[in-house]
Amino acid sequence: MGEPVEALLWDCDGVLQHGRFDWRARLDGAVGPGFAEQVFEAELPALRGERSLREVLEELLRHEGRRRTHLPLTVEDLLAIWEQFDLDPEAVAVLTAVRELGVPCMLATNQQDHRVRHMREVRGYDDLVDGSYYSSELGAMKPDPAFFEHILQDLDLPGERVGFVDDVPVNVTAARGVGIRAVLHDPASGAAGLVHGLTPLVPGLAAHSI
């Protein structure tokens, strides 16, 4: 089972929060097949902190505007999509229980500048955790090992003393590659799945009142 971790990193989308609708279907339905993929591709530099999300979306819409006679979405429409998500109260209860057991919890998530501001200033995420590692602020995004290496350096802890939970297998594999004790979470398993997966890292979690 190993020793308890001294810090636990949490992914956001798919673990602590969930979108309100299928983004791909919404974007493709509004503009046309393949548009969602273009949006997600355009977002990548913003996720790495190289450009702002607004800037890359404005560029994408200018390009699309030259190809299409009518473009039904504005930059503001696209930006608003990234605000359409909800915190999972049961997952937050598990996170809170981990903190109450004395293990600091930090976000470790791929987010661009617009989403970071919304999460901090509108949703109050800073009050939920002990710290945050956003890809756009680190200059690297999961599954790049540099993302996790930066966190370990900042925490000044060896990988075996740090836990991580994510719902994306490639991210879990990358974290394990630098020695972090990473847990793969199935969103369908809910809070019970989180408790089951994290108990080896945080002894006493299963017995804690959640």
TrEMBL record:
Keyword Hydrolase among UniProt keywords: yes
Keywords, ordered alphabetically: Hydrolase
Pfam families membership: Hydrolase (PF00702)
One example GO MF annotation: hydrolase activity
UniProt KW Cytoplasm keyword: no
SUPFAM superfamilies from the UniProt entry: HAD-like
The protein's name: HAD-IA family hydrolase
